[in-house]
Amino acid sequence: MAARLIGRVLDRGFYARDARSLAPLLLNKILVHHDPDAGRLAVRIVEVEAYAGAEDEGSHGFRGLTKRNAAMFGPPGHLYVYFTYGMHWCANVVAGEDGLSSAVLLRAAAPVTGIETMRTRRAAARTDTDLCSGPARLTQALGLAGGHDGTDLTLTRAAVRLLDDGVPPPTDPTVTTRVGLRSGRGDEYPWRFFVPDDPNVSHGPKQ
DNA sequence: TTTCGGATTCACT
DNA sequence: GTGAATCCGAAAT
What we know:
This protein has helices spanning 12-15, 19-25, 70-73, 115-121, 135-142; strands spanning 8-9, 30-35, 39-52, 79-84, 88-94, 102-113, 160-164, 174-176, 192-194.
């Protein structure tokens, strides 16, 4: 029933570019979680935000290395998963060279495989386009949490992987400012990218 | 040790 | 469109 997923694992060099360059390239990539409880879950990424290193006040890395954000400072191609608002997990892909604190936040996706599991986990979702239409919704639907912080996405046996299945990123992605940042703390940078007119994109500022 | 505020979501008006 | 829920990490004391 489920269509066979064919795709190649992206290599380290793909992730090594800076976050602003990497972010739009992640659009239309496939995020797969081999969930020990639910089997294979997969989504197609449709919305991302770039967080760029030490000079970006909106980035967790702005205030330097801490135990929480250590994955951001590590080598590219790993997951950075953090807890926020006392109840939500958000997942990032680490970008840039080892030692730089840059990452791309995965904000929204389109369900591909395991939709029944996602509907169960996202009971509040009224429609399938609400299953992954926000950074914390995405992690909840896929079952990602703090235990996945630091996962190497480039390992073929990793529980979480990012695949290129041949669908290219949009040639003209929509670009806006980032969501949820305080005024003057990096909210002015146009570093949010999403697939134009995709119904799974989160409800952010004017699109 | 205490305080502060958050890369959000959901229910409700 | 508005506000409550909810708790951890980091900064301040």
